[in-house]
Specification:
alpha+beta, 4 strands, 125 residues, 4-stranded antiparallel β-sheet, GTP Cyclohydrolase I, domain 2
Length: 125
């Protein structure tokens, strides 16, 4: 199994449950691992693997849509990756809100989500 990684991607977006978050926005850090079985080894052509630029473009589009909960956002992205890339077998995603609107909180908050192709078959879409 081969993994592609997208690490420390920073997006400015309008996710959150509070109206202020949806108006002012915030910075989010996203990390993702996509595991897959390449068509052949060693991988010599982009068509034999998953193009991380295509994964990034999918993530960028979804991050632009305001969402109340990071849990929803992470789940949606993981499902989209598995549905869009037939070679993908497993997705791990973590999303952190870098500047949460919580009084005296120094740090970030976030969620992680794992989804396999097998689990996707059992989810209600």
């Amino acid at each position: 199994m081969l993994s592609i990684h997208l690490h420390n991607l920073i997006f400015f977006a309008h996710h959150g449950i509070h109206q202020e978050e949806r108006i002012l926005g915030n910075e989010f850090e996203l990390n993702m691992t996509v595991k897959h079985s390449p068509k052949q080894l060693p991988v010599k052509h982009l068509s034999d693997t998953i193009d991380y630029i295509s994964v990034y473009e999918l993530v960028k589009k979804r991050m632009a849509l305001p969402t109340a909960l990071l849990e929803t956002l992470a789940t949606d992205i993981a499902k989209q990756v598995l549905m869009e890339f037939s070679m993908a077998e497993f997705v791990h995603i973590s999303i952190r809100k870098l500047y949460p609107p919580v009084s005296q909180l120094k740090g970030s908050v976030g969620v992680s989500f794992d989804l396999s192709r097998e689990e996707l078959k059992n989810l209600k879409l």
